[in-house]
Amino acid sequence: MNTQSRILRYALYSSASLLILSSCSKDDNGSGYDHFVSSEPVISYSRDQMRLVIDFVSQSIPDLSQMKPFIDSDVDIYKIVYKTVINGDEINASGVICLPSDPGTYPILSFQNGTNTLFSNAPSKSATGITYQLIEIVASMGYIVVISDYPGFGESEGIVHPYLVKEPTVTQALDLFSAASEFTESGGQEGVSAGSDVYLIGYSQGGWATLAIHKALELDFDAEFSLKGSVCGAGPYNISQLFTQMTGGGTYSYPAYLAYIVNAYKAYGQFTNPVTDIFREQYASRIPGFFNGLQSTDQINSQLTTSISSLLTPEFIAGYATEAKYATVRSAMENNSITPWKTFKPLLLVHGDSDTQVNVSSTENIYSGLISAGTSTAVCRKLIIPGADHGDGLVPSMIQGILFLNGIKDPGLTYHNRAF
Q1: Is residue 311 predicted with pLDDT exceeding 60?
Q2: What strands, in cross-sheet order, belong to the sheet with 104-112?
Q3: Nearest CA to 189 among 30, 304, 26, 308?
């Protein structure tokens, strides 16, 4: 399905021996902090090892070679546990924090990952796997990189993941930023501390999450964190539009996404309708069991149907857009969409023009909306990747995104932003 992802998978497996597991055994306890709970060392990468990996993978993905000049230090990676609040209850959440080994004060770069249904694929459980290695390497470029597991994964597997639910997604991210600062204050790594500057990057669900966090940081939390710039790849920014596109055609190739949204929105009280108002009974009763952390989206897709008329009730298909019965469902989609505003913070929107999972119109529309709201075209940029489907767009989006953010952090560098 995804040629570039397959190439990347092969290349990273082939180069895995270049990245050596850390022998650290330190386990920090964050008792006494508002957010930081504990940390556990996972792996360390040397600067030379990372450069060798970039050289090797660049044989398959030449654009990746643009990352090599930024690699400047060794990197140490930890699992981090932190406190956040979900539905009014304090829980322990988790993720990964990646620190440059050289002493200094560094900005935080937060990566928001895409849709995941497997507990085993949470960043803190697969930090040494191929999915996250190239993001972790970014810490060597002068950032403290954080990657949330998202609530519902890692330390919080006992709760439903708030998939595309805006408030808990934003809250846990801000709590992770605070926990990262407290971790460095606790002596997590000698001589390394987190500054107040924040950079954001994400793809798919993570693109939506990144834009939601960007807006919250700029409008509501600017006194706590200084947002410097964001990169949003292929995000479903307008959930109402996405849901209408999913349900409005004769077929939809990824019905697991529909089920994931409805399951999360029902669990978090986003609408009042029973699930049987939306899905036909033979599917409605089974949906919660699909999201037990043990099934991939492909496995969930195989237990559903791509035929919308067979998947959803005829009453919902006919009446979703207008009938009062579905008013709270419509409101849920609207409330978790990201409305355009006039942003003053640098923002790059990236999308493949052949995306069959999240239509490129999602990015085209949010870009137009941001510009119409008064955002300068010098502040908000758009990059549409020709011929790229959803999976194919990930790697080029992240490469161009890191170049974009590095250009903001170090504007005097001469080898950044080559796509612009």
Answers
A1: yes
A2: 36-45, 75-86, 89-100, 144-148, 104-112, 192-203, 226-233, 347-352, 380-385
A3: 26
Please tell me the least confidently modeled range out of 53-57, 157-161, 354-358, 380-384: 53-57
Calpha distance 209→164 (Å, rounded): 8
- Domain final residue, candidates 308, 335, 362: 335
Give SS3 for 110. Answer: strand
* pLDDT for the residue numbered 21: 43
Under 8 Å between Cβ of 300 and 256: yes
- Tally of structural domains, the chain: 2
Strand, helix or coil for residue 310: helix
- d(C-alpha 124, C-alpha 96), whole Å: 5
153: which residues sit within 8 A by CB, 6+ positions away? Answer: 94, 116, 119, 122, 124, 125, 161, 293
54-94 per-position pLDDT tens digit: 898 889 889 989 999 999 999 999 999 999 999 999 999 99
Read off the pLDDT of each residue in 105-125 and give the average, rounded to a whole number. 97
Cβ atoms 353, 388 nearer than 8 A:
yes
Q: Rounded to whole angstroms, how far apart are CA atoms 149 and 260?
A: 17
Band (pLDDT 50/70/90 cuts) for residue 249 is confident
Same-domain status, 350 and 279: no
- For the domain that residue 324 is a member of, what is the CATH number? 1.10.260.160
The CATH number covering residue 192 comes to 3.40.50.1820
Query: Do the bridges between strand 75-86 and strand 380-385 make them parallel or antiparallel, or are there none, so unpaired?
Result: unpaired
CA–chain centroid gap for 151, Å, is 12
Task: Show which of 335, 354, 373 is a domain's final residue.
Answer: 335
Is 376 contained in some domain? yes
Q: How confident is the model at residue 228 (pLDDT cuts 50, 70, 90)?
A: very high
